[in-house]
Amino acid sequence: MTSRPVVSVYKSDNAKEIADSVAMPGVFTAPIRNDLVHFVHSNLAKNRRQGHAVFYKAGQEHSAASWGTGRAVARIPRIAGSGTSRSGQATFGNMCRKARMFAPLKIWRKWHAKANVTQRRHAVAAALAASACPPLVMARGHKIDNVPELPLVLDNLQDSTKTLVQALQSFGVGDDLKKVRSSKKIRSGVGKYRNSRYVMKKGPLLVHDNNEDGVKQAARNLPGVDICNVHRLNVLQLAPGGHLGRFIIFTKSAFKALNAVFGSHKAESLEKKGFKLNRHVMACADIARIINSDQVQQKLREVKQSVRVHDKLKKNPLTNKALMNKLNPFAKKQAELMKKVETDRQAKKAAALKAKRSKAAKKSKNTRTEKFHGLEKDLLASYKAAEDLIAQEEKEGNYQPGDSDLESDE
Questions:
Q1: Which residues contact 328 (CB under 8 A, 6 or more apart)?
Q2: Degrees to nearest 5, angle at CA 288 with 283 and 292
Q3: Are 318 and 324 a contacting pair, CB within 8 Å?
Q4: Adjacent-strand bridge partners of 21
Q5: Residue 352: in which H helix or E strand, if any?
Q6: Segment 195-208, tens digit of pLDDT
Q7: Whole-Å CA distances, 301 to 156, 286, 287, 297, 341
Q8: 282-324: per-residue pLDDT in tens?
């Protein structure tokens, strides 16, 4: 889409001289709808097709019949006869060798397609708008580095091929014409054996008015150059292959006629009844500029701070101190008290161990040990004396088991 107020009109015999300026037609401000152009082109391109079909008996002229059931083979028809490898082979099915194809082509297939008139008109308008956008034209493959302006408008187009080529060369179109000539090659596939053996890329499109029919004869022999009347523009020429950005050269009268053909956003077309150009969904497609504008910013509220009620992941308060302090405000004080108790316990234990390992403690322990060993020695000695006395009485025969002073007292 382009929205310049005027377009320069160049003299065809002098590329550096501007003869006049023309107001930009409203069709060049139409929305560029690639989806619409592709849909319309894919439907209209089908109308060039010719019906074709295969022979209605192709693949079904064999003498074959099914073997039926009970022979452990499929029930598909098989070639009759014997004595050859061909006999017994399956046929007629589309999965079989030398059989018919699946869904054989018929000439009554629906070869053509329709497209709504309004859709076709909007697609043509979108293709014209795209032709005035240099990035789209270059992306399509046209060589326009030396072209002074897009859309390119000349005061008139020459009526002879020689002068027309010279005029196009002077406006930098020669690079595109050279690209077309060098792209000629033999068509791939079996189509090379039919009517169109060679293929080549598309060059510029010359658009003229009704009173300029002489250009048709002058340009009809130039490779890749197409000619079209401004009152009969179509998507097949404006967007070959459904791709936007055809390089278009207008004559002055044809360029002026665009307002009558397509109208504007305010007025309907004079030639297409009831047709009015589409409007853009957005007048300014620069979203960042819109958002950062003063008019929008002064209506926006302050930036909200993040106030999540809870964390994205549930945390364990037994292992997370911050969460435990949030749930139990006394948790921090409790932890400090427990730490103090543990510190005091460890200090007392260390003091006790130190006192236990001192010289006085060791001396006291040695005294207790000697006293214990003395008592143990005296006890063993008393037991030994008693055992010796009992042994002596037994030897003398005076000792009776159970006889003691306690029993006599009773």
A1: 317, 334
A2: 100
A3: yes
A4: 8
A5: helix 331-356
A6: 889 999 999 999 99
A7: 59, 22, 19, 8, 54
A8: 878 789 999 999 999 999 988 888 777 777 788 899 999 999 9
Whole-structure pTM value = 0.67
Dump pLDDT digits (tens) for 228-281: 999 999 999 999 999 999 999 999 999 999 999 999 888 889 999 989 998 888
The DSSP secondary structure of 270-325, one letter per residue, reads SSSTT--PPPPS-S---HHHHHTSHHHHTTSPPPPPP--SS-SS---TTT-HHHHH
- The DSSP output letter for 359 is H
Beta strands 185-186 and 14-23, pairing class? unpaired
Task: Compute the distance between CA of residue 119 and CA of residue 232 in angstroms, rounded to an integer.
Answer: 15
Helices marked H in 70-173 — which ranges? 117-131, 134-139, 161-170
pLDDT category at 13 given cuts 50, 70, 90 is: confident
C-alpha 8: how far from its chain's center? 42
- How many CB atoms sit inside 10 A of residue 200's CB? 14
Distance between CA atoms of residues 115 and 120, nearest Å: 7
Among the listed ranges 117-131, 132-146, 260-274, 394-408, which one has the minimum average pLDDT value?
A: 394-408
* Residue 378 half-sphere exposure toward CB, CA atoms < 13 A: 5
Joined together, the tokens standing for residue 303 give 């930036």
Phi, psi of 67 (to 5 degrees): -80, -5
CB atoms within 10 A of CB 277: 23
